[in-house]
Amino acid sequence: MIDIQTFNKSTDDFDKREGRTNFFTLAKNLIDSGFEIEGLLLILTTWNFAIFRYAVKQFDINNFKKTLGMLKRNFDKLNGQNFRTINFDDYKSDIQTIYNSLSKIKGVEFTGAPKLMHLKNPDVFVMWDAYIRGEKPKKYYDKLDTFKNGTFEFKKYSKDFDGYFGFIKDMQDKFKHLNLDGQKSLAKAVDEFNYVNITLAIQGMEKNYKRTKRINKQRPANNIAFKAQLSQKKRH
């Protein structure tokens, strides 16, 4: 079981290491000021950029507004609920409607949908990405402290609603015992913990792997050049 000191250290590291952290505050301020579409789009262009950039030219803002309007009743049902105590099964139909409607929008999709859901109900929804979903090679996860110490077990979640619904229930089981004193919701803090201990950690391993692979590719050429130099010296 994760203790509060370890958990808080990870969320503190998130603030230090991730330069985009303030965009969530800016987006929430825009939403609270009546600029919902602008706030949601800000997150798509900063935290969902890898996907959104391919759809930005064809992104239908009017359809986006229409979809959000149709989902208002579903989102409103979740107002006042809390990630720690909510019975997700009681709201499964609403969450399914929200997730499926948002994830099918090009430029939002499976990683972006929970980000928008979190902004609409920040006390309920936890975000995820491909690393947190378990989409990378298992060898990476086996090296992570959070997996070696039993905090997490390797599990690959599907991108569809069933995968996300299973994910948020698993996260609730793992972290509902924690009580936070700060301004962050537990749902947001759980995402930060996962991001630091899974996403950033594996990204670091990926970079090291690519660097090592590049160096190894260069070595044969260097060896050939070195041998050629030795051969020339012998001749002289």
Mind explaining what this structure looks like?
This protein has 236 residues and is an all-alpha fold. It has one domain. 66% of the residues lie in helices and 0% in strands. The protein contains eleven helices and no strands. Helix 6 (92-103) crosses helix 7. The chain is globular, with a radius of gyration of 22 Å. The protein starts with a helix and ends with a helix.
The gist of it:
This protein is 66% helix and 0% strand.
Q: Can you summarize the main beta sheet?
A: none
List the uncertain runs.
Answer: none
Radius of gyration: 22 Å
SSE topology string: HHHHHHHHHHH
User: In total, how many beta strands?
Assistant: 0
The domain count comes to 1
Compute the number of helices. Answer: 11
Basic shape: globular
Helix content: 55-70%
Integer average pLDDT: 92
**What is the CA–CA distance across the termini?**
70 Å
Report the sheet-strand fraction: under 5%
Structural class: mainly alpha
Explain the layout of strands and helices.
Layout: H1 4-17, H2 22-32, H3 36-46, H4 49-52, H5 61-77, H6 92-103, H7 109-120, H8 138-142, H9 145-148, H10 161-175, H11 186-235
